[in-house]
Amino acid sequence: MKTNRISLAQRVSLVSLLLLCALLLTLLPPVAQAQTLTPDGFADPAFRQIWTRADALVAAGSAGRSWVWGELPGSRRYERFDQAPGGVRLVQYVDKARMEINDPAGDRTSPWFVTGGLLVVEMIVGRLQVGATTFVNRAAAAIPVAGDPVGNPDAPTYAMLAPLAALDGGNRVPSRVGQRVSATFGPAGVGESPALARPETTIVRYEPVTGRNVPTVFQQFMEQRGPVLVNGRVVREQVVDPLFVFGYPITEPYWATVTVAGQPVPVLFQAFERRLLTYNPANPDPWKVEMGNVGQHYLRWRHGHTLHYARPVPAEPLTVRETTLTIPTYDLAPALRPTQPGDSIYPYDRLEPALVGPPQPREYRALVVENRFLTLTFLPELGGRLVQAVDRTTGRRIFYQNQVIKPSPFGQRGWWLGVGGLEWAVPTEEHGYLENLPWAMQVIREGDRVDVIATTTERQRGFEVLGTVTLRADESRFAVRLEARNPTTTAQPLQMWTNAILSPAGDNQVGPGMRFIVPTDELIVHATFDQALPAPRQRFPWPYQAGRDLRNPTNWTGYIGAFAPTPVPFIGAYDVEADYGAVVSHGEGTVGGKIFGFGPSVEPGLYTDDGSAYVEVWSGAQPTFWDDPLLAPGASRAIATTWQPVWQMGMPATATPEGSLGLERRDDGGLTVTLATPQRLANATVVVSLDDREVFRSAPVELRPDLPFVIELPPGSTGVVGVAAAGRFWQAREVP
């Protein structure tokens, strides 16, 4: 059933839009109609054709019914199915179901070339079907069949339906044709509420195959005739083949109290083999009868994932706007003290913490750059930083974003503003001197790219500093370049780093699922309060030390800052519980890599007021903070990196600017390979190898940033994994 509710004003706007779409539908030529109404992102033309027939007119608002499949195509996978070629079949999840192609060489004109899967049966029984007669047992789905996914305590779950379900020819009930439905079901079991019985719930069909009764509202919905789109033309015929779409009914219809948008609502529901139907008499037409979100529920049950969708094509590929952010800010003015020559930080200010004034709301100028997949926000007045990057597909934030601007006792000045985001750390070790000062900002738009350039002149050594962030249309990555120029006549020492302040789950916390990903077998201590680690400048094994997984800061006994001993191609921060994070690929000039986290013993009040937490990932022009190379007069130095959000891949195993590869061992013993590309790559054939032996080759498919490509290799798959696609290649070994 629908889980999103809209306001009256939104509904009026939606009605106006739908009326306009309906008018356009009558004016456009047939082929243009189909092109206009079909979203991109389908994994196979057969999936697109099935969706278009039933749901294109629903999207246009001219069908007078609810969704058959869902508004947009979602996650695509090659899932294990032992009888399919290569032992996998191509599937695509939508809100209401899963589309499957078992034999890509089969007859595409057959109505059963695409199948729907008995997803409801699997969730009720607790058996994943991975072959014609092969199953993997797991706990039945403790997921509400209707209403809100959480905070829905009175709703029945799929697992609760097991004693009521007619499976394998058993558990039948007699015909009740002509009776009205008054039975209820929930956590307390089966009950009766005669007040809920109404004419439209009168039983009109008895299904002899499963021994189940179907009420009027559901039978009419399954047999409805109406406008569908066939070969670009609107025709009126039966919308779906009930057996193909629904399968047989497997429970009786029951009333249940479910929570919708936080409010309890009486809803009639009935489970079928492939779908679940709901009837909410309080809904407006045509949304009284709806398909349950079986596709969403099954993906969460089987893979632990939220269903994400192909992002629609935006009206503009790139937008740039200026706005403001209001952030509570501690008053630094009374506490700042000018320095004198001879002070190591001269001419920058020191701070007397006892004189800092209380926080007050302050408005900051902000620049926002956006494409289909990313929203980037910059704060010129706070170091010209990229304060936030939002992955629009998932809605998650990549960077930590402090909800208060508060000085903390870190850095070479003796104080630092832990604002969050990506900061430019120049000209000395730690956080440099410039993160609290205003920078000049310039936006250059050329073709399919936008460059946001932050510039300042460093006052101690005279460097001209430029930090550039580049975003291209239709990409989920952004390029970062930090450059320093020496316009003086004297060689000057220069340290230059970008510091990314992260909370990988996007929730401003560092939880037990947090993992640093550094492709090295040892790190060098910069500073630590973890007594099990050696002294600064000494090396320690990575990622395990004496059985302790150091990738997770909650395993530390104190803060740790550590450098990679040699240049690494990428660093990642990933939360395995949220299955989300980000990776930075190191490019030209980037030889230093560093991680930092507090561990559980540091009081967050040092840098914030809300108990939030973060980790740091550093990329530098020099290997460590102990390296301070000179920059000659008139010379420049630059580092280049590329950032990409990653999700639903277990954990990234490797990354390049062209994409990331994740490897995850499944509970059936197989290996799942996930490829996330930051660009749309059309007609790409994905080839997977183990120890240089090809084990999988896909049909040509479009790789997309919003729908990572997933291949399930069979049980027993081990070795070095290689993935080739569209002239690109990734290679990694599974990390235990």
Automatic annotation (TrEMBL):
Superkingdom of origin: Bacteria
Sorted UniProt keywords: Signal
InterPro entries the record matches: DUF5107, GH-type_carb-bd
UniProt keyword Aminoacyl-tRNA synthetase, yes or no: no
Matches recorded under Pfam families: DUF5107
Protein name: DUF5107 domain-containing protein
Domain DUF5107: 344-621
Signal peptide per UniProt: 1-34
